[in-house]
Design a protein that fits this description.
The protein is of the alpha/beta class and 234 residues long. It has one domain: P-loop containing nucleotide triphosphate hydrolases (Rossmann fold, 3-Layer(aba) Sandwich), CATH 3.40.50.300. The protein is 38% helix and 26% strand. Strands 6-7-8-3-9-10 form a six-stranded mixed β-sheet, with helices on both faces. A four-stranded antiparallel β-sheet has the order 2-1-4-5, with helices on one face. The protein starts with a strand and ends with a helix.
Length: 234
């Protein structure tokens, strides 16, 4: 399996937010999108999920063309998004939120996937009967990611998963991302926290003004004086 998108354009009225962006991601690979606020990271993820109007020469997963596919069709094809802001259902329990991510009808498979999420995020097991709105920010982010993974994605997209979280939680989320990638999921990680993103990713794309200005292995980007000065305050 591989995911690719070519010639992606996103416009909001007269404003072009994403200009001719092309990306590729292999199974088990973590790819980071880094850039300042407004660089186009979230717009790219929303476009891939067909949540915002866009055009593209090619959108494909495992050779299957998805240019005309809507959000539901892309979800069923194996694309899943954990959005910025978490968007858990606050009145539902942790378990109910997790189960919402499962797309099938097999109760045994749903339980098996839920158990895998509890093993990855033990705090969710401890709080499975609590209302999601009572969780901390870090726990809600774990829940949002778990819900996205319950769909059994081939491509998992994470939009600003560490925003506003404590360093210890950031490290836990980074470990979870690597864990999911080791299981064969392709991960597209959009982050303002360039240090976290490039420490976690295999490759990275640097965005500026809605355009890809650099693509390189994550270690090379992390070592770049230009990247460090622009995004890491060094």
């Amino acid at each position: 399996m591989s995911f690719s998108i070519e010639g992606l354009q996103v416009r909001y009225g007269a404003v072009t937010a994403v200009h001719d962006v092309s990306l590729r991601i292999a199974p088990g690979e973590v790819v980071a999108l880094i850039g300042a606020n407004g660089a186009g990271k979230s717009s790219i993820l929303k476009a891939v999920m067909a949540l915002t109007p866009h055009t593209a020469r090619k959108v494909a997963i495992d050779g299957r063309a998805l240019e005309r596919a809507d959000t539901r069709e892309r979800l069923l094809a194996g694309i899943s998004l954990s959005p910025e802001g978490r968007h858990v259902f606050p009145q539902l329990t942790v378990r109910e939120n997790i189960d919402l991510g499962y797309l099938g009808k097999d109760g045994g498979e749903r339980a098996s996937r839920r158990e895998a999420m509890y093993q990855r995020f033990p705090r969710l097991r401890e709080r499975e009967a609590q209302a999601a709105g009572s969780l901390s920010g870090g726990e809600q982010q774990m829940l949002a990611i778990a819900r996205a993974v319950m769909a059994g994605p081939r491509l998992l997209m994470l939009d600003e998963p560490t925003l506003g979280l404590a360093p210890i939680v950031v490290r836990e989320l980074a470990a979870a991302i690597r864990h999911f990638a080791h299981g064969g999921i392709a991960v597209l990680l959009a982050e303002q926290n360039a240090e976290m993103a490039l420490s976690t990713a295999d490759r990275g794309y640097v965005l500026q003004g809605g355009r890809v200005v650099t693509e390189a292995p994550a270690q090379a980007l992390r070592a770049s004086e230009e990247v460090r000065a622009a995004f890491m305050g060094m």
